[in-house]
Amino acid sequence: MVDNVEDGDGKMRVLVLGAGFGGLELTTRLSEEFGNDVEVVLIDQADGFVFGFSKLDVMFGRTGAEAVHHPYRDLVKPGVRFIQTTIRTIDPTALSVGTDAGDFESDLMVVALGADLDPGATPGLVEVGHEFYTVGGAFALREVLAGFEGGRVVVGVTSTPFKCPPAPSETVLLLHEYLSERGLRDRSEISLVMPLPVPIPPSPAASEALLEAFSQRNINWHPGGPCGPFR
């Protein structure tokens, strides 16, 4: 099928691909500025949104997955039509896309699809390790941590740049708290390995505070150089 540019009333159609922060903010602004004078179509393959920081709440058992999932049907604004489907092709000349739900054309197309994470690009990570940067990975770690009975934990950053620079530091601090509450901290070792000289280079004050917090909690800090085999 082809979803035509105009639906008979002459409205301009804006096609927004991706319902992350960029897509949601743009469609909200368009709704507020133009109301029903512009037809806005928002496409994303997911049915809802999870704030990045919420992954850690689920991971450490502070809340359930359902509590941090925000359906797009509750977020889209008046005049915005949300379509959940997978985009297969993008034609930048015709301002159209091909999806599993059919083809969509527009007068103005905005691509805000973001980037996918690829944990498999780090040799051995998927096979023997865990990651908490994807929603699925973080949620799966909830059960892994619940079954952890103490031992050695390494939180490692494989390369730069990486999104949310404070996240690794926040994770080791939360891990310290989590293991302490379960009575497992004394028989556990926590290490943070990063290819940076300090936890958050753009903020010396924050880095200094984090390093002090690591020292107080006996969290091992290993800075500098890309992560390789850790012994």
What are the segments in which pLDDT stays under 50 over at least 5 consecutive residues? 1-8
What Rg do the Cα atoms give? 22 Å
**Helix/strand order:** EEHEEHHEEEEEEHHEHEHE
Helical content band: 25-40%
Shape: elongated
Binned strand content:
15-25%
Q: Span between N and C termini?
A: 57 Å
Q: How many separate helices?
A: 7
Largest sheet: 4 strands, mixed
Mean pLDDT: 91
User: How do the strands of the widest beta sheet line up side by side?
Assistant: 1-9-8-7
Query: Total strand count, please?
Result: 13
Helix/strand-derived category reads alpha/beta
Write up this protein.
It is a single chain. It is elongated, with a radius of gyration of 22 Å. With 231 residues, it is of the alpha/beta class. The protein contains 7 helices and 13 strands. Strands 1-9-8-7 form a 4-stranded mixed sheet, with no helix packed on it. Strands 6-3-2-10 form a 4-stranded parallel sheet, with helices on one face.
Quick description:
Helices cover 29% and strands 23% of the residues. By secondary structure, the chain is an alpha/beta fold.
Task: Note the topology.
Blueprint: E1 2-3, E2 12-17, H1 21-34, E3 38-44, E4 48-49, H2 54-59, H3 65-68, E5 70-71, E6 80-84, E7 87-91, E8 96-99, E9 102-105, E10 108-111, H4 125-128, H5 135-146, E11 152-156, H6 167-181, E12 189-193, H7 204-216, E13 220-222
Parallel strand pairs: 1-9, 2-3, 2-10, 3-6, 11-12, 12-13
Antiparallel strand pairs: 4-5, 7-8, 8-9
